[in-house]
Design brief:
Layout: H1 14-25, E1 44-53, E2 59-70, E3 76-83, H2 88-104, E4 111-117, H3 125-138, E5 148-152, H4 158-172, H5 193-211, E6 220-224, H6 228-239, E7 243-249, E8 252-255, H7 262-272, E9 282-284, E10 296-299, H8 308-313, E11 318-320, H9 329-337, E12 341-343, H10 345-348, H11 351-365, H12 371-396, H13 400-419
Parallel strand pairs: 3-4, 3-5, 6-7, 6-10, 10-11, 11-12
Antiparallel strand pairs: 1-2, 2-4, 7-8, 8-9
Helix pairs in contact: 1-2, 1-13, 2-13, 3-4, 5-6, 5-11, 5-12, 11-12, 12-13
The chain binds nicotinamide-adenine-dinucleotide.
Binding site for NAD(+): 197, 228
Family: Belongs to the Glu/Leu/Phe/Val dehydrogenases family.
GO molecular function: glutamate dehydrogenase (NAD+) activity; glutamate dehydrogenase (NADP+) activity; nucleotide binding
Length: 423
């Protein structure tokens, strides 16, 4: 195995987590193992400098990235993250997880991801627009509807996608809606896209709970992160009768023994920007979130949150990975030994990229589907993906994560093998 010169050897980095996950699937790949090194090498990694004129006349520079991890099965697909701690290595890991996710769901895409090392909350709306446009221009040579299609992730949203689409379109001289997904619906976006990731967490969560004999209606749930993914998951599980007993975001942690009133909390969050100060639940210490008693845990914030220590003390029976890479490899082993089922990110949070795929198809054909049609297709694809991964896990006697990697890596490496090497 070759080691990339531009990555650190930090054991708990997202890239190291991804590499450890790949290691675990190798024994199940048969002859395709010959091609497996391709999984450890991002195809293309672009670092860009984004000079930005601030509203006060000063100029600041921000670092941006776009990584295309693997394009064997189709154009790159993956979000853009605006966050002050984004690094090239993190974006590499996120792009690799997109490769696995798209293949696990059998979507005709490779994996990519982008990021800018910035706290978007510190920028004015005009500064954010200028930053987005310059970043889009800088990565413009490698994105496109047939090359690589960005989408929203942490810190970006439909408005950012609209600016990206407009900037790319201005640069190529034609309105090109298919260059990004997650756009506003009136600009070629898809109905159902905003809620798709949370809906996917719910669909796979209900199916997984059923398989392990857990009644969603009677269940107690803890959610970390109340952004796009966490809030929709919370809403759907709440509507299904579950009690959301603990919620954590960047501003604090809330707990209520008999369940938090989710509509009231979401209204509070809309008004105040975070969950801090909500009085209809008890504010508890950050670390106590992990020690509470609940049946289902939904990490829906950032990666690396389920450490070995936390895995040892968790009381739940099911983890639904709304976030990308929330569980460290050592913690995965502990959860497995403790018979806590983990629906891995590459299946659990794939609802977003699945509806992004629908959006891309709709943009090409300029024919748009109804929301119920989209939700129905999403439900079918996610149920089928979970079924095939569960079957694989049972037959190989491995975790759902390793089974998802087995299904995905077979598809990726088969494509690699059949395409051959050029020259
Ligand atoms: P978001 O920016 O809308 O929300 C992020 C949430 O995490 C916020 O509530 C924030 O307060 C919280 N958070 C941030 N730092 C935290 C910390 N240290 N402790 C606790 N909470 C913290 O982002 P999102 O789009 O909901 O994405 C969340 C996760 O889901 C990410 O891992 C992302 O990659 C993944 N994901 C998102 C999508 C999507 O369609 N949005 C799709 C697939 C995966």
């Amino acid at each position: 195995m070759t080691v990339l010169s531009y990555v650190s050897d930090q054991a708990d980095s997202a890239w190291s987590t991804y590499l450890a996950q790949v290691e675990r699937v190798l024994p199940y790949l048969g002859d395709l193992t010959r091609w497996a090194d391709t999984l450890r090498h991002p195809k293309r990694a672009l670092i860009v400098d984004i000079p930005l004129e601030m509203d006060d006349g000063t100029v600041r520079h921000f670092e941006g990235y776009r990584v295309q991890h693997n394009l064997s099965r189709g154009p790159g697909k993956g979000g853009v993250r605006f966050h002050p701690q984004v690094t090239l290595e993190e974006v590499m890991a996120l792009s690799a997880w997109m490769t696995i996710k798209c293949a696990a769901l059998n979507l005709p895409f490779g994996g990519a991801k982008g990021g800018v090392r910035v706290d978007p909350r510190e920028l004015s709306i005009k500064e954010l627009e200028r930053l987005t446009r310059r970043y889009t221009s800088e990565i413009g040579s490698i994105i496109g509807p047939q090359q690589d299609i960005p989408a929203p992730d942490v810190g970006t949203n439909a408005q950012v996608m609209a600016w990206m689409m407009d900037t790319y379109s201005m640069n190529v001289g034609a309105t090109t809606t298919g260059v990004v997904t997650g756009k506003p619906v009136h600009l070629g976006g898809s109905l159902g896209r905003v809620k798709a990731t949370g809906r996917g967490v719910f669909i796979t969560g209900v199916a997984a709970a059923q398989r392990i004999g857990l009644e969603v209606k009677q269940s107690r749930i803890a959610i970390q992160g109340l952004g796009n993914v966490g809030s929709i998951s919370a809403e759907l599980f709440y509507q299904a009768g579950a009690q959301i007993v603990a919620i954590q975001d960047h501003s604090g942690t809330l707990y209520r023994e008999d369940g938090i009133d989710i509509p009231a909390l979401l209204a509070w969050q809309r008004e105040h920007g975070s969950i801090a100060g909500f009085t209809q639940a008890q504010a508890i210490r950050h670390q106590d979130f992990w020690l509470k008693t609940f049946d289902i845990l939904i990490p829906a914030a950032l990666e690396g949150q389920i450490t070995e220590d936390r895995a040892r003390s968790l009381t739940c029976r099911l983890v639904l990975e709304g976030a990308n890479g929330p569980t460290l490899p050592g913690a995965d082993d502990i959860l497995r030994n403790r018979q806590i089922t983990v629906v891995p990110d590459v299946i659990c949070n794939a609802g977003g990229v699945t509806v992004s795929y629908f959006e891309w198809v709709q943009d090409f054909s300029s024919f748009f589907w109804s929301e119920s049609e989209i939700n129905q297709r999403l439900d079918t694809i996610m149920q089928e993906a979970l079924d095939s991964v569960w079957l694989k896990a049972d037959s190989l006697k491995v975790t759902l994560r390793t089974a998802a990697y087995a299904v995905a890596c077979e598809r990726i490496l088969m494509a690699r093998k059949d395409r051959g090497l050029y020259p």
